[in-house]
Amino acid sequence: MSEATRLTVLAGPTAVGKGTVTAYLREHHPEIWISVSATTRPRRPGEIDGVHYHFVSDAEFDRMIADEELLEWAVVHKAARYGTPRGPVAEALRAGRPALLEIDLQGARQVRERMPEARFVFLAPPSWEELVRRLVGRGTESEAERERRLETARAELAAEAEFDATVVNHTIPAAAEELVELMRS
Ligand code: 5GP
Description:
Blueprint: E1 7-11, H1 18-28, E2 33-34, E3 38-39, E4 54-55, H2 58-66, E5 70-76, E6 80-85, H3 86-94, E7 99-102, H4 105-114, E8 119-124, H5 128-138, H6 143-157, E9 165-168, H7 172-184
The structure holds guanosine-5'-monophosphate.
The site of guanosine-5'-monophosphate has 16 residues, from helix 1, strand 5, strand 6 and helix 4.
């Protein structure tokens, strides 16, 4: 098995629960290494710098791009930049750990260009109605922000066919365990 076949990329529409699935894995599957992204968005209450994200300034993000420290990066929701630090991913794979990137679709496409042997998993909502309910239910965004996220989600749902596998997020534990099974296969 080549190193990159141990790399799994999890993507899917906004509010489908990627972050919650990842949080579940962090708690229940410490054997899986989960990439910590850099982002220029402000920290939300409860988020820890270096655990959930590396919260960086625009200038620092520019520097990371210039120094080619990012495996991929994208502007998400037309609001902030997010990127995957390249070094830690390489290190985890070298150490033989199963590694997971939880990123948006634009980022997943960039990783596929660079590491086509990686495994690409699409996390899908049980239905569009359920996705809208979750998006509105989260309540952390303004009306305009929600509209923007829905618009992104519509386009993202159409991308499922580009992926190697789909996991439907009926419940967080079931979806997470299905993902772990895929990562073992
Ligand atoms: P949030 O701001 O809600 O934490 O995340 C917003 C979106 O950014 C999510 O869809 C998440 O998958 C995506 N994201 C998080 N980290 C990265 C990254 O390193 N690269 C890319 N391309 N997207 C990311």
